[in-house]
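Table S2 (continued). Query chain:
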Amino acid sequence: MKVNHIKQLFVALFLLLSAGTATAAQWHLAKTTLNAAGSKDTLTLEVSGNSFSFSSFQVDFTLPDGVLLDGTPILGELTDGHALTWTKRDDGSFRCVAYSAKNTEMKAPVGTVIRIPVVLAASFTGEAFTAKNGILSNKKSVAQSVTDLSETLRSYKERANLVVNVSGLEQKVNPNAPAPAELSYTTIPSGKALTVGYFKDDSCKVAATDEDRKKEGILYVKLSYKGDADYAPFEQVYVMSLTSKKAIAAKDIVAPVAEKIKAGQLLSASLLTGGSVKDGDYTVAGTLAWTNGNVVVPAGKQSYSATFYPDNSSYYNTAEVSVEVDVTPTYLVTAVATTGGVVNVLGKTEDNVYVKDQEIKLIAVPQPNYKFESWSVMGSDETLARKDTIAVKTDKAKTYTANFTPILHEVSIEKKGNGNISVTVEGTSVENGTSLQQGTVLRILAGPDPNSQLKSLTVNGKALEGDKVTLTETLNILAEFEVKPVNMALVTIENAKNGSILLYKEDGSLIASGSTVPVNSKVRAVALPDAGYQLSGSVSLSKVTAGADNQYTVNGDVTASASFAPQTYTVKASAVSSNPSQTSTGTISLSKKGEDDTWSPIKEKEKLAYGTSVRVSIDEGQEGARLLTILANSKEISQQNILIVTGDLTVTAVFDHRVYIEKKYILWPYQTYYYNGVSRNFVPFASQTYAGFSFDVMYQDSEGNKTAKAINADNYKVLLHRDEDGLYNKFDEVYEDGLVIKKSKVSVTEAPKDGNSDPKTRPADMTITKTTKDGVTTYKIEPTGDAAKNYEGTTYYHSTNPAVKMSFGTSILRSGEEPGGHVRVTNGGMPYGATDGEISIPAGTIVTLEAVPAKGFMFSHWSDDATNKNPQREYVVAEGSAGVTPVFVGKADLAYSLASSSSVYNGVAQHVTVTGTGSEACQITFFFDEACTQPAVLKNAGKYYVRVYRPADAENKEYTKVFPYTIGQATPEVTPPTASDILSGQKLSESRLLGGEAGIVAGTFAWSDPDQEITEKGNQEVVFTPTDPNYKPASVEVEVKVVSASSGSTPGPEPTPGPDPVDPDVPTGVESIEDGMSLYTANQSIFVNMPREVALTVFDVAGSIIYEGKIQGEVEIPVGHTGVYFLKCVAAPDTLFVRKIVVR
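Corresponding output:
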């Protein structure tokens, strides 16, 4: 913690820690229902019921198990330029203290005081948050207490969707049945009772009677569920068709086998293979598909409804069969890190949801000067290996935490002889035996007593070079003093702020402050500014005479002094897209903190001084862009972070833009079929990255009418819609002729008894005309009325001529199965039966032959005409006819390959190109495993598997193959940092890296070889290590300048006219007053010597005032007992500082 922060904290304690009285003020949380488990949120703590005006406050809050602090608490809207300090206490609570150095009041007595960013464990459901020890304090240090708060926080849980399986969408009508036709259903989970309503119209306003449900026609069935605590409301309208077609019995269906999928996927993601339907001993051609493939499935083995759609839909009804699907459970697994590092997840999914037993690798990456300590599981005592890389298998919802701790080194301080040694960190004294974090810069100064000199000042046995050392190991600091010889000049190097002064002898060796040099010897002075500073003016040397070559002759005791001013750096902000191919549609702006503690916008190309405070004032996405992260010189920050300028600073807001779903990757497996009175769901199949997406489907008929149920014969435009979400833009596409329902042919269901009677037909509303010639009566049957919409006419032939036995090969419908296929023989749609592979047909009859290929085969031609490729033909039966035979050939075996089996990470989901005939119909899905049980998005660097599937069609066999695919790490584009100067012979670790960034890539810069000793100016290797595992480390060269005795001297030291003035100038600024102040303790008293008049208040840790008054010069203040005390000094209304002192 910086020294000025410590000062402010002591002021806050002075204002707060006094006795308070009861008040109506209460803590209040703006919301207690948080986001979903595993996500981030912000707790907003408010003060309510309060009328007491206050300028500072204190609160101790405790987070529930399973809720982790995610960054730094942030002051709320009530504050007005206030500062915040917070610490974690031994009991696990966090103490927050807000105060104003100017004692400014809050904007109002009630409102938001603090926001607490948190991350929820994947397993978090609910637990109590507490806020205690609340104090409000006003300008006069009068305090009021705030009533304690205990409130249960709960994570948001979205209600699940009920899964409904239906059967009986098409049924054979039975006018004489005792009960009307019903639509059957089951639910997942079981036992949910739905409300069922039968209607005659698709708007479900005209109820259907029991009699309506006993006759042919189309009815609409509405199933609904009002919902409960766990399941959302459900409502769906189904089309139920009652026909006189032949029903397929459940016992005649062999169910297909469903592929294993994961919970949360669409049912359509489970591919169906196999399955068959029999009518007696013969196979019925058709297709099995999910009845509702657009439903999201829960985990577990459950049965779902699949529908058989017969090719001969004018003869057979559709039929439903239950198919068991093994749905693997999924779990939300997240990984977080404590301060000091990050966690990389290899095999990470976009939503942090993983299949049961899926293996992921967690890598703990410490930040500089931190080390990995251990793994833990939030809310669990599970023991994990103490390795920075572990592989875990998902077995439940979990949040893994990588625990990091600072790397500490002990500092031992020893002196021998008459003198003193000072070791400080940013002005704060370091005591012997103190352990400090690695990377801490120590300033080491030794001062001899009168008539003594510094003999040696060593660090780990080696002479200290300069006055600063960066802590990289345990340090043993030893200062040895000896008697000062006569005729020797004492060298005193003043403690310059923000830099060092180096004096060299003629032989190039360093002169330590407190040591001596011979009178009349020559010295050289060199300034070494701290990182971010530059010499202001020149080094001043007393008791010297300027000579040639920037050397100075020593005339007496030498005092060296210098001042250093901050350098200025470029500070800029940019908004970029995470997708390199897109232009950002977001904005970001920065503001700077002035000397009056007010914030103002940073102008374009403005340079700011080292140490200036900067914050993000505005960041917002446009056109649906969402803020993904903010990087400050490649370090991830939050909008509330205060940044300190320590070099060129680039603040980058990375926006994740919604992308457009590409139409070409949305496929549909079934486009054309014949009218059968059933609304057949169009289930779009999303390929590639979009696999598993669901869409809203509407249909538009040829007259422009839109409907959710496509039943009648027509060429439909398919209208697909998907609402925008956090990742994808709204999808609205039209597929011309996406769904074609052809007219079915009228079927004769019962032959006429003779040439004078008419046949019975399906549907019954027909116009029949007949003619008779040569013993053959020809019936022309045409649909009328509504039937004409969906049916086309047919012709039936009734012959009284002698029958002719025919076999059409041996492949007659309902005859023995041949490998290639069979022939279906019909007359007016009514099939002929076969006996021993032969059928008898009266001469003069014209029959329709349909070649029906077996699985894996396709029709080629007819045996009597190689040019006839039509599987349907008419055949005139004449006396002596032998018939014709269909010729079947095997379907083609397709072969596909990936155009490329690898790519390089580019921040967006990859698309894979498949080469081969008909590749546009391939369904491409991505997985983490070769068994294709762990779906993946092809985006992050790693190894994947690509499954290419193409369903069988009329000419080609089904194709499935799995290909390996690799996404390699990208190389970040790095803007190198700059390096601070170091002394010749120092380790490279003493040079600080300033600035540097890698665009949208978060990471850290570090020296490749920090322990090497540098003796001359040159380029050194710096490694940028990304915290994003999608990027590989990158090396850059950075110039390091070396300061030595041969370095150019600083401009002219000022000549010293003689002895120092007796009365120095009276200090006026805060820093000069502090520098001129002496402070020590003895005999349980505090001794203060002030160079000018100040108002002094001394108080203890409890806030009790020990002394208050104006002083100048030395004053003794008895305190009476040991302890920690604070001195508040006010030299002017706006000139205030606080010192801490320990009375032992």
